[in-house]
Design brief:
5 strands; 3-stranded antiparallel beta sheet; about 450 residues; Growth Hormone, Chain: A
């Protein structure tokens, strides 16, 4: 039987204060990650790159060390102070984002994008683990949804902020850095965006590390950490739950990252918008629809769970993935930018619905000493496959199947057709394994450290 809690859950107001700060950090991380998508055309022109090379900068370069470093950083977060893991990570990715603005070749830009990935690998696993110690499982999907809203809001704000910087540079001139000289507008954008990390570091310093709950018990009490072989054994024992839930979300991520990465370029090439026009239009749409999808998806999962639906979290994931298929097919075919924006809003709303529930599921199925590693595992998959494959798959279709940059809308459709139906099937298959794993864990863990 589970131990009775030896202390109450943290103060709700303070718990939400932490969620707000973590969400701001998540937003800034995705601004730093996604800002490149608005700068495709000037970077291509300045450095002489192909769509495939750009896709490598957007996806593979970032995800290489994000994925490799995710697990060891997560193990650190499962046994050490998670707040300081995040502070160090924010400092690294912000510095490397600014360094992207100093790149003058594909190779240097590739390396600095890898550095951004190293820093960002620290945030989500540590944040997910912290929030699972601030909120009980039946109330966790909503705050997780708010946190994950930072993903889509970060994507949108990256476009809006990038557009504003481009307009400001055109109006007032480029940045002049001592010893470096004048920067191109796209380089200045990276430097300015990287400076946002200073604010996040200051805010994170005010956060308190919560007591750990739901730890594996040994003998008379819970242990502080478990060997890596035991972590691997736990995931293998419960492979059906992790494979279906994580696999379904990963397949959704392939289409989502492909769409998010290439939509600004699609608007510029197809509808003749300028970079700043595309940034404002798409950015506002993504912020609104992504925020609504993440928050409503998390709230709906908690609401259904409170009404006795034992599959509430997986059910919300499945509904979102189901809506995403027709929305992703129709949106690129719209005859005007305004109609395409409506479709884009529906697409990002549906795609964002799953983000809060899947993060909550990862915590609910996993002992405390493994929770950051559980988050790192699904982030490893969604980023290595989703971010690593999604943007490049779109580019490969454009460069080698259709052979025409103007055909990018059909490349976006191709990726949706291939990957999103797989997501629908896998998530539905995950209902029963998820519930069995979560119930079994609840019977064998200690509530509070």
């Amino acid at each position: 039987m589970s131990d009775r809690p030896i202390q109450p859950w943290p103060n709700l107001k303070y718990a939400w204060y932490v969620v707000v700060i973590l969400t701001l950090a998540n937003t800034v991380s995705f601004i730093d990650r996604q800002i490149l998508s608005l700068l495709v055309e000037p970077i291509r022109a300045d450095l002489g790159l192909s769509d495939t090379q750009i896709s490598l900068l957007q996806g593979f370069a970032f995800v290489i060390f994000y994925s490799i470093m995710g697990i060891p950083i997560a193990r650190l977060a499962d046994s050490k102070n998670r707040k300081w893991v995040i502070v160090i990570g924010v400092s690294i990715w912000s510095l490397m984002t600014a360094a992207c603005g100093l790149a003058r070749s594909f190779g240097v830009l590739f390396l600095t994008r890898m550095g951004v990935g190293v820093g960002e690998a620290s945030l989500s696993p540590s944040a997910h683990s912290m929030m699972s110690d601030y909120f009980p499982p039946e109330k966790l999907s909503f705050p997780m949804g708010v946190f994950v809203a930072g993903v889509t809001s970060g994507m949108g704000i990256a476009l809006i902020a990038g557009a504003a910087v481009i307009d400001a540079i055109e109006a007032y001139g480029t940045l002049q850095l001592p010893g470096i000289g004048a920067l191109q507008p796209w380089q200045s954008t990276f430097v300015i965006v990287g400076a946002l990390g200073v604010v996040i570091v200051a805010l994170m310093a005010s956060v308190r590390e919560p007591a750990r709950r739901g730890r594996i018990k040994r003998g008379d009490g819970a242990v502080d950490s478990v060997p890596l072989r035991e972590v691997a054994a736990y995931f293998l024992t419960n492979w059906k739950a992790y494979a279906t839930v994580y696999g379904g979300f990963t397949m959704t991520a392939v289409g989502a990252y492909g769409l998010a990465t290439w939509t600004p370029t699609f608007y510029i090439r197809t509808f003749g918008l300028t970079a700043s026009e595309a940034g404002y239009m798409i950015g506002v749409t993504i912020v609104i629809s992504g925020l609504l999808g993440s928050v409503i998806g998390g709230w709906l999962a908690d609401f259904l769970a409170s009404r006795g639906d034992r599959y509430a979290k997986t059910r919300v994931m499945w509904i979102g993935s189901l809506i995403l298929v027709p929305a992703g097919l129709i949106t690129p075919l719209m005859p005007s930018a305004k109609l395409a924006v409506i479709g884009l809003g529906v697409t990002f709303f549906a795609g964002s619905m799953a983000a809060g529930p899947v993060a909550s599921i990862a915590q609910e199925m996993t002992p405390n000493q493994m929770r950051a590693q559980a988050s790192a595992l699904y982030l490893f998959l969604t980023n290595l496959i989703g971010l690593g494959l999604g943007p490049t798959a779109v580019a490969l279709f454009t460069d080698y199947v259709f052979g025409d940059p103007a055909m990018i809308r059909y490349s976006l459709i191709a990726v949706v057709v291939i990957f999103n139906p797989i997501a629908v099937v896998l998530i539905r298959m995950g209902y029963k394994p998820y519930r069995e794993t979560a119930d079994r864990l609840q019977r064998t863990t200690s509530e509070v450290a």
